[in-house]
Design brief:
This protein is mainly α and about 450 residues long. It has helices at about 10-15, 25-45, 50-65, 70-80, 80-85, 85-95, 105-120, 130-160, 165-195, 200-220, 225-230, 240-250, 255-265, 270-280, 285-310, 315-325, 340-365, 375-400, 405-415, 420, 430; strands spanning about 1-5, 20, 440.
Length: about 450
């Protein structure tokens, strides 16, 4: 038995207070809960209209069939990211609503079916810029509720059962593995669709999305009770204003979100990289997709290692190690002169980012006020997409007007270096323990 230190004063200020005991799950049940929760997140990651399997072909569709420039593609991505920027609203909805008393299971079933139905309907509409814009926005709104339920549930489990680092590992593996497969298949799928009509290409993509969301609903409906009982919840009994005020006054939230904002603000990692590989290195769409696949593959060993390290080392040490690696992350790509060399560079780039990614999510879980796990999880997603899209937009501008891809890489290094002083602002009691030890929240 271990305890998470908390109290009403600590809840608002981040200072340590009394001990509240938590139950450590037996190993077999912990494995079942993490595996099945990870499976649901994995399916959601595949189905997201703004991610690799669906999102990458849409990006190449805009570039190759609608002939948009790098800046225009980046602008499309920013416009469709509106629901992602406001993700905390969907998280608040999750924390305050338990349809028919079914909690996260009900939300996953309901919005799995709703999102799948939208995908199926859009599949039979002739594609155009306006149609794709509206479809991605509508789909993003629907899938965000399912995301809030899945991630909020796992964050709740991590807090209640003293396993924030292990939960972070599962969340990140559930994100990285689909991205690895999605970018490999997404790039190949984009090349295969070049010979098809625009209507057939769009229909295939959206029907794939519909099938994946149907699988989310089925998994939630048939999932083991142990998954949803590990973090039981009911609808919030406090007012919306009180919940907003509670998270706004919770000081540990701010450094965690600021660090994550900078971590995801990577001008070199999006459209600038795609156009650099296509135009300068003469890579095919499949090779660009393969780069991202190899990049995310590189995350897997270090993210997996984090699941072991977080039980043996203080989070403070892991945060510093991970951030030093992150600062140097994109340097290898400056030496690539061919698509093959870029693919080789993707391996160390991914490896150097894994510890930082897992540590920052671990920190966010530890920093979350009790009862608002869905809100915090979606604040993290909102931070991710705000930084990603605007970093992408800045990267495209640097690529087009300020020295090309090399400038974008140096800008990314400078942004990541700015994380280092922010580590000093984290409340010490949050990062002074390893997973499974008493934690002040």
């Amino acid at each position: 038995m271990v305890g998470w230190l908390r109290g009403s004063g600590a809840w608002m200020s981040g200072e340590a207070s009394e001990v509240a005991p938590v139950t450590v799950l037996p190993a077999a049940r912990r494995l079942q809960v993490m595996a099945y929760g990870g499976l649901i997140l994995l399916l959601l990651q595949f189905a997201a209209p703004y991610e690799g399997l669906i999102g990458l072909p849409i990006t190449f569709f805009l570039k190759n069939k609608l002939h948009l420039s790098a800046n225009a593609v980046a602008q499309f991505n920013v416009l469709t990211a509106g629901p992602l920027f406001l993700g905390f609203l969907f998280g608040m909805l999750r924390d305050r609503w338990s349809p028919f008393g079914t909690g996260d299971r009900g939300l996953l079933v309901m919005f799995g079916l709703i999102t799948g139905a939208i995908y199926a309907a859009v599949a039979f509409v002739a594609p155009s810029y306006a149609v794709l814009l509206g479809a991605v926005i509508l789909l993003s709104c629907a899938i965000q509720v399912a995301w809030a339920a899945g991630r909020g549930m796992l964050a709740d489990i991590g807090q209640q059962h003293a396993m924030a680092g292990q939960t972070s590992t599962v969340m990140n593996m559930a994100a990285v593995v689909p991205l690895l497969v999605a970018y490999l298949l997404g790039g190949v799928l984009s090349g295969m669709l070049e010979g098809n009509s625009a209507t057939a290409a769009a229909r295939m993509l959206f029907l794939v999305g519909a099938g994946l969301m149907a699988a989310v609903a089925i998994c939630a409906w048939l999932g083991p009770k142990s998954l949803f009982q590990a973090a039981p919840r009911t609808a919030s009994s406090t007012s919306l204003a009180a919940d907003v005020l509670r998270i706004a006054r919770h000081r540990p939230v701010y450094p965690a979100l600021a660090i994550y904002l900078l971590w995801q603000f990577a001008p070199a990692g999006g459209v600038a990289l795609q156009f650099h590989m296509a135009n300068t290195l003469h890579a095919t769409d499949a090779q660009v997709g393969a780069f991202y696949g190899v990049f995310y593959f590189g995350f897997i060993p270090t993210v997996a290692a984090y699941g072991w390290l977080c039980q043996r080392m203080r989070l403070e040490k892991l945060l510093w190690w991970g951030t030093f690696g992150a600062v140097l992350q994109w340097l290898p790509l400056l030496f690539a002169r061919t698509p093959g060399q870029a693919l080789m560079a993707a391996i160390p780039i991914g490896l150097m980012g894994g510890i930082a990614q897992a540590a920052y999510v671990d920190l966010a879980i530890r920093s979350c006020p009790r009862g608002l796990q869905g809100t915090m999880a979606m604040l993290l997603i909102a931070a991710y997409w705000v930084s990603l899209r605007f970093g992408d937009l800045w990267g495209a501008w640097l690529y087009d007007h300020k020295g090309g891809f090399t400038t974008a890489v140096y800008a990314t290094i400078a942004v990541y270096a700015a994380i280092l002083p922010l580590l000093l602002l984290i409340p010490k009691h949050l990062i002074a323990t390893a997973d499974g030890e008493a934690l002040a929240v």
